[in-house]
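User: I'm putting together a teaching handout on how sequence relates to shape, and I'd like one worked example. Could you take Flavin-dependent monooxygenase from Paenibacillus terricola, show the sequence you're using, and then write out its predicted structure as tokens right after it?

Assistant: Happy to. First the sequence, then the structure tokens directly below it.
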Amino acid sequence: MTTIVQQQVLNKRIAIIGGGPGGLTLALILQKNGIDAVVYEREPHDTNRERGGSLDIHEESGQMALKEAGLYEQFQALARYEGEDFRLFDKSGKLYMDEVAEGDAQGARPEIDRGVLCDMLLKALNPNAIRYGYKLIEAVPLENGQHELRFENGQIDVVDLVVGADGAFSQVRPLLTDAVATYSGITMVELNIPDVANAHPDLAALNARGKMFALADHKAIMGQLNGNGSLKVYLCFNAERDWLDTCGIDLIDVEAAKAQLLGYFEDWDPSLQKYIRYASHNMIGRRIYMLPVGHQWECRSGVTLIGDAAHLMSPFAGEGVNMAMQDAAELALAIVRHGSELDEAIAEYEHNMYRYSSESAMQSGENLAIIFGEDAALRLKEQFDRIYLEFVQQANA
Ligand SMILES: Cc1cc2nc3c(=O)[nH]c(=O)nc-3n(C[C@H](O)[C@H](O)[C@H](O)COP(=O)(O)OP(=O)(O)OC[C@H]3O[C@@H](n4cnc5c(N)ncnc54)[C@H](O)[C@@H]3O)c2cc1C
């Protein structure tokens, strides 16, 4: 049986552009509250599995959203609590932090692979609620407050609410703001080492069960154990935007690329160089973009943004996916509260979202400055110690 609020919203057509973690979570929480929405995804099928590795899902944001979606128990069964292990080195191999997730204790930030997370969301979502092969070209505001959505496949839809969950280069964002994603100054080269425990037990032991950061000379090697036993490695460079085109490294020619990449880390400890030497296939160059920290727009009828579309930030605080999922929950619950008054729901959601997302964006920016600054390993340890102390003080207040 539907409630009065649901009946009011049922008459409204809600479009979510983008089937990443943010868009899927939003559709699912609406569905759980009896409200229909349609996700329009540009790819011909789900590609979340191919888009990066393990994500730590935070208690107060990502996990909160999973509770609202009714998936928390499933998440707990799939999450890797031991993935909270964290090691921090400098280039000489000196160890600054060695955090080990304790026994059976369930920490606040367990890991899950992006593909596994999105599979879980997709399985719970009504299959009719997602349309693949729908790349939004343009959203045109109509005089009656609705939006006409024009897709590359020739389809046109008219909706009452359009939510841009379409990531860094959102096609919905220009309806609200002139802000564009700008290059952060950091470029990553992603490497993969399959079955690291069996193929390279020495590196598996060094990396432990979670994440490893080695920082020095405005560069970083970051290792991340994934749920399928592979190690994902991000080599991070403070570089010009066109460096990937001008550096002369052909990422298709893996062995030659490895030799060239090792050149950038020739005076790093041999144990850390193994993150490059053992890489086997599938090298990907990634430029890191961001929106201005604290960026806001004037509230407009029938349109809003969530996730990277709203507040793209560098990945150095591990907040992006958590913010996308928290936005999804905040917006969905505001819609549930306000019924057919969708504009009131948008206003309430945006007001809250600006506050928490700007804190995370600021944190990501601070971490970026530390990770690529002087004495990076020591400074990052001091930063984590400070955050931990603040957390303890707040908990005891
Ligand atoms: C290398 C790297 C590592 C990261 N590591 C972490 C981490 O450890 N922890 C963390 O929290 N975050 C991390 N992030 C950030 C995280 O990936 C993003 O913040 C998160 O994916 C945002 O989710 P989203 O749903 O807003 O957008 P996305 O995941 O980008 O999804 C957007 C979706 O919209 C679709 N789309 C785009 N344009 C259109 C269009 N015109 N029409 C229809 N569909 C469209 C896309 O195909 C995609 O499916 C990392 C990012 C990078 C680059």
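A couple of points you could highlight for students: The chain has a mean pLDDT of 94. The chain has two domains: 4-81+107-180+293-375, 182-290.
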